[in-house]
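Bug #77: duplicate submission created two jobs. Keeping one. Sequence:
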Amino acid sequence: MEKTSVIAYTREGKRWIPAIRTQYYTINVNNVLSFDVLLTPSLLKEYVMGRLVSNAYVEDPDSIERINIRDDIIEVEVTPDFEFRMEYLRERGVEPLETINIPRVNGSFFVDEEKLMEKLTLAGDTFFELPSYLLSDINGYIFTASDIEDENAFYKAVGRALKDRFDLKNAFLVSSSIIRPETVIRASYLGIPLLGTTKGITDLAASVGEELGITLFQLDLDGLKVFTHPSRIR
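Kept job's structure:
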């Protein structure tokens, strides 16, 4: 986690205190989609890839041809059919995920509680300093990312995995934040079968998880709690 320093007033007087470094970025995609976001200045390309794919702006990571970072501007080039798709969406006033009938998550992937705890231990204490995500399989792959916003950390972790052509359908995702329904929807769209947290889940997230076939679980000091589709954890 990249840090800088700011002046603070303490009982000992005026001092320089470490602070989390952040920056506003403007992201332009083919000059037809633009958004501004506050991020920690790490894994920026992964953030862009994760955001575009997780929200169905592009269906295939290979559609993203170039990501160029220049100061606070991130220019993204995507295959030309992206522009026609954006025009279609704007005419109807909808977001890409609203146009997709997300199928239920299927597959035979499962994991045991011991493996879940082992991977979470590998993430270390930094996993809890900021909103963080850990994405892993039961073998050697593990991708972690943190940011000041839970959603941004999600995009960065997913983007890291997509960049390595990781198989999301045979993986589990763990958050250090409360799981909300939007997170469940994005994970289900990507085909991730297990989504966990070290904090808690909302009732709406549990309802969406049950409907979409995704396993929701919580790992905390009291042990493992599984809320939906428990057969994937053994």
